[in-house]
Amino acid sequence: MEFFQLHHPLNATVLCDRKGCEQVADYLEVDDHGHEYRLCAMHTDSKTHSSRLPTRKPSPDLPFRSRPADWTVGGTSAPSKL
Ligand SMILES: [Zn+2]
């Protein structure tokens, strides 16, 4: 198993692959068969913080769940423009 810091596309935030998890995926795990998994800090097996791992882009044909980069976290929506 290899661990990388997940490279996010410019206009999207990639979410964790685990079912029901809506956390941002910070880790890219590559297993011995070359399968790639995007996981959040809670679900990764990495003992190293993502900021200390090399960055890597997932393979382009790997579908991912995402939300727009401007999606607000914490339940407070952005104030509407006056
Ligand atoms: Zn997760």
Give a short summary of the structure:
By secondary structure, the protein is an all-beta fold. Helix content is 0%, strand content 26%.
Strand order of the largest sheet: 4-3-1-5
Structural class by sheet pairing and helices? mainly beta
The fraction of residues assigned to DSSP E strands is 25-35%
How far from one another are the termini? 51 Å
Stretches where pLDDT is under 50 for at least 5 consecutive residues are none
Number of domains: 1
Which descriptor suits the 3D outline?
globular
| Mean pLDDT across every amino acid position | 87
Tell me how many strands there are.
6
Helix and strand sequence: EEEEEE
Can you summarize the main beta sheet? 4 strands, mixed
Q: What ions, cofactors and ligands are bound?
A: zinc ion
Helix tally equals 0
Tell me which oligomeric state these chains represent: single chain
Give the radius of gyration.
Answer: 14 Å
Helix content: under 10%
